[in-house]
Amino acid sequence: MRWLILFVVCLSFKSSFSQNVHGKWIGKITQQPGGYSQLYDLELDLNQRKNIWGDSYAYEGDSIQIRIGLSGFIDKDSIRLNESVGWIREDKVPFSWIACVKKFVLAHRIEGNFEYLEGSWSGVSKDNPADPCFPGKVILSRTIEGLNRFLEDHRDSVIVAQPIAVSSAPPVLDFSQRFLNTEPKKITEITVTHPDLQIQIIDYMKVDNDTVSVYLNRNLLASNIRIDKRPALINFKLDTRIELHEILLYAENLGRIPPNTSEMIVVDGDKRHRVMIVSDKEKTAAVYLRYKSKKRS
After folding, report:
1. I need a labelling partner for 206 at 20 to 30 A (CA). Which of 21, 193, 264, 272 fits?
2. Domain of 123?
3. Is 112 helix (H, G, I), strand (E, B) or coil?
């Protein structure tokens, strides 16, 4: 599974705030690696007079449906919209997930016959305002046609997070070398039967600002993930030409209480493999994945 991250390109445009942003906008919202999912659908239903108010609706199929009231204003060339934790209308998420209360900073743009709002968002957990969410980008259009046109015209800007080059021949891997001045320490070996996998990383002790970066076969998958009670999700795809793969959890810091501790869950189809991880500045935890397709087993 490729990690689709919608990268909103920088385009020249003229400010058009003389036109009202009142009405319904439809589009996409992304989240950086480490968040629950990298791409959601997003709708804004806005009213505008002197200020702006309305609802935001983020969803992914039937499993994620989050509707929150918001308010905002136009500040020079920016539209600033803030959701409110007291205005949560709908909060349907999978077990152990927590909705983000978001802040949007958007720009209004007209391109031909189409209108767009695009920009970025940041946010915090609805349960803990001191717990930041992984931020992302936003693209919205007044029409489905406009949104599809944008995604088609700028399809080269839909990128893969931390792309790993794949050559025509299987790479020769050497896991015996030191890694970033640490010694890889084998924790376990897991047999997996699906090439499309997910890693979930969660703190199983006291949250103390531990931060890790995750590497697949010594290639960066996701960097500077803060370990929290809310799991960070990382989707990735194995090179099926290789049987044995290495996952490294490198401790970027040790938090307030060394060493760096976490629980890693490897999601392989319907199976879940749980591994307790301990890393420090001398040793990096290594988990090995042995790929065996169902056709061969």
Report:
1. 272
2. 4-160
3. coil
Dist CA 30 CA 159 (whole Å): 12
99's tokens: 């909705």
Place of tokens 């080059």: 165
Phi, psi of 153 (to 5 degrees): -65, -30
Identify whether 177 is part of a domain: no
In a domain, 170, yes or no: no
**27 and 106 assigned to the same domain:** yes
* CA 118/CA 123 separation, integer angstroms: 17
Question: Do 118 and 214 belong together in one domain?
Answer: no
Specify whether 57 is located in the same domain as 17: yes
Give the number of other Cβ atoms within 10 Å of residue 178's Cβ. Answer: 9
Asked whether residue 211 falls in the same domain as residue 151, the answer is no
The pLDDT tens digits for 70-86 are 999 998 889 999 999 99
Angle at 8 between CA 7 and CA 12, to 5 degrees: 145
How much is the pTM?
Answer: 0.52
Say whether both 141 and 30 belong to one domain: yes
What the block records as the tokens of 133 is 């969410």
Q: Tell me, what amino acid is at 128? A: N
For the chain, report the end-to-end CA distance as a whole number of angstroms. Answer: 22
Q: In this structure, is residue 171 part of a structural domain?
A: no
Same-domain check for residues 89 and 228 = no
3-state secondary structure (DSSP) of residue 173: coil
d(CA 211, CA 218): 18
Could you give the number of structural domains in the chain?
2
Q: Which residues make Cβ contacts (< 8 Å) with residue 147, sequence separation at least 6?
A: 26, 27, 28, 139, 140, 141
Please provide the average confidence, as pLDDT, over all residues in the chain: 81
Kindly give the residue spans of alpha helices, DSSP state H, lying in 32-100: none
Q: What is the largest CA-CA distance in the chain?
A: 65
* pLDDT tens per residue across span 172-200: 788 888 998 999 999 999 999 999 888 88
